[in-house]
Amino acid sequence: MAVKNKKFLFGLKVDRQLDGDKMNREFLDKVIAEGGEGAAIAACMQCGTCSGGCTNIDLMDMSPRTLVLMVQRGEWEKVLKSNALWLCTSCYICTSRCPRGVRPADVIEAVKAIGIRQGVENDSTKFNQIFVELVEKRGILFEPELMQKYGGLQAMLAQAKLGIQLTLKGKMSPLPAKIKDPKKFSEALEKVGKQ
Amino acid sequence: MKYSYYPGCSLHTTAKEFDMSTKVVMTELGIELKELHDWSCCGGSVAAGVSHDVGMAMAARNVALAQKENLDLLASCSGCYNKSARALKALDTEAEKERITAILSEMGISVSDCNIRVRNVVDVLANDLDISPHIKKPLTGLKVACYYGCLLTRPADITGWDSPVFPMSMDKLAQACGAEVVDFRSKTKCCGGPILVSKQEVAFELTKKLLDEAKSLGADCIVLACPLCSTNLELRQPDIEKNYNVSYNLPILYITEIIGLALGIKPGKLGLNKHIVSPKTVLNKLGF
């Protein structure tokens, strides 16, 4: 069809106007079921206000606006491959500015979690997973352990000067803090993570 | 006024001066803080991106503990404040409440129906009382850039802040202390905190922009209320200087520290000797 090759038709942008039949409820529901507050994804009218305010838009291969569209269409592979997920700092500018209550930051958060469960691996997923594991372990994060587990000896050495300064100022304890019953805490959370 | 005080992971470690200054300022203003018994990490900006329910349960645990005390939860750290407020909202949603309650009960913690609120130290200082009559040593001549970052004010339906993109509460507090507040356009731009480790260069770039603007406005220091922002702006300032071959030497102070100084509290008691970027220039200017 000739229409397909045209970007605009009678002044209307073709891909937007034809989008109705491209929607994929299944993926939309999957993201909503993750439990975020992205329940209004379907309400996105592609105005781009989210992208306009985004902190890291310059570096993203897919803008928050496009990402929401891809979730609507069920283009799951594209969504999971996008570096936008890992460049998002969860700063909520997009969510605060959205005129339709779509909450792109929560959509991204839900997609991240689904992606990790589907086996997406990179520096960010590695960091996020170690962070959660360590909080689950004692209930309170021990930063030197996070650095060591994430970056190994090299990261420890790179941060050694700062670590010494902080220790001398009484701002870093060599021993980790923990909650009273870390066992119960971690068991309850590990169970959820596996579901 | 009495609050259940939730220091979070940072205030007992890298943000020690925030902990010290919060406690001493609150006491001076007649607000009682009772540290939340057996608090745990809120999961920060990271946990919910691994599993929504894990993230919510981590934050909700502290809310449930504060409910038990029947006291509003006061969090100084912006991240702890935001995530706790979000968990409180989730506990108010039927579908989420059920899931969170189930996880918490496995931990041996029950959720009660007691209505508490989650508050931030800036919010309490700006909205619950008037600090002006308590000012003993006005910070005359000090130029400050107030930096709110992201999670302190956003999203507005969770924080209920004056504005999610151009708030004034901290600016007004600094003004009440007698300081001159510069028009810091980047006051709610993100510093890149949550991606500092995994995408360091990107985070440095974001933080650099903030330091550049504050410096160009002639600010003597940046004033903030988030330990993670402080990690980027202060602890990583030497790294950023090295990376970009620039020199800032810009002190980064917590809002409670400058309020404390204005209340006439000694710098040592506020933890001002614990900074990595020395606040000496600020103290000299104020005649300490």
Inertia-based shape of chain B: globular
Mean of pLDDT of chain B = 95
Q: What structural class results from the helix and strand content of chain A? A: mainly alpha
- Please give the CATH class of the largest domain in chain B: Alpha Beta
Strands ordered across the widest β-sheet of chain A: 1-2
Q: Sheet with the most strands of chain B?
A: 4 strands, parallel
Q: How much is the radius of gyration of chain B in Å?
A: 19 Å
CATH fold group of the largest domain in chain A: Fumarate Reductase Iron-sulfur Protein, Chain B, domain 2
| Largest interface, chains and sizes | A-B, 63 and 57 residues
Report the order of strands and helices of chain A: HEEHHHHHHHHHHHH
What does this structure look like?
The complex is a heterodimer of chains A (195) and B (288). Chain A contains 13 helices and two strands, in the order αββαααααααααααα. Chain A is mainly alpha-helical and 195 residues long. Chain A folds into two domains: 106 residues, Orthogonal Bundle (Fumarate Reductase Iron-sulfur Protein, Chain B, domain 2), CATH 1.10.1060; 72 residues, no CATH class. A two-stranded antiparallel ribbon of chain A has the order 1-2. In chain A, helix 5 crosses helix 9, helix 10 packs across helix 11 and helix 10 runs antiparallel to helix 13. The longest helix of chain A is centred in the C-terminal third of the chain and has 16 residues. Chain A starts with a helix and ends with a helix. Chain B has two domains: 121 residues, Glutathione S-transferase Yfyf (Class Pi), Chain A, domain 2, CATH 1.20.1050.140; 154 residues, Rossmann fold (3-Layer(aba) Sandwich), CATH 3.40.50. Chain B is globular, with a radius of gyration of 19 Å. The relative contact order of chain B is 0.15. In chain B, the strands form two sheets. Chain B has a four-stranded parallel sheet with strand order 2-1-3-4, with helices on both faces. Chain B has a four-stranded parallel sheet with strand order 6-5-7-8, with helices on both faces. The interface between A and B is large, with 63 and 57 residues.
